[in-house]
Amino acid sequence: MLREAGVGVEIVPAAIDEAAVKAGLRAEAVPPRDVADMLAELKAQRVAARRPDRLVLGADQVLVLDDRILDKPADRAEARAQLQALRGRRHELLSAAVIFEDGAPVWRHIGRAHLTMRPFSDAFLDHYLDAEGALALASVGAYRIEGRGAQLFSRVEGDHFTIMGMPLLELLGFLRTRGICVE
Prior knowledge:
CATH topology: Maf protein
Order of helices and strands: HHEEHEEHEHH
Number of domains: 1
Strand order of the largest sheet: 2-1-3-4-5
Strand content: 15-25%
Oligomer: single chain
Largest sheet: 5 strands, antiparallel
Distance between the termini: 19 Å
Radius of gyration: 17 Å
């Protein structure tokens, strides 16, 4: 998203065990908003330790259904189960971004969006999963709103970029204050 917006970036994997971190946070009953924020911060912190001379962005997104966080599905059966659970219901996406500079966080934002899936038949669901293939496993909720997944929804409330995984407009605003983006 940043590259498409004209911002040069270097992608450096954070190498964290997200599943273990999420499990620990769930065991402590940490609210989903804080889970997204902590994961984004941990990613930024990890990379910032290796790149102390750079602004480092960490980002993460969680899907919340009934106060429960859904993860990316591991396989088609899990994707189908997630979509069945979401079908006809409203859920929330939380997209967190944290920027580190000189080893410390200097900016953070959490975008929120609410999405309502329309009721759809099992036949439609199977057709959707057939058409999406492995792409259904690449995101929480087993959908990509920017693609065929748009057909799953009856209502979308919130920023498009937040839904895609990053509060981009707020991030660009911060980068402009730092002279990284042109006013």
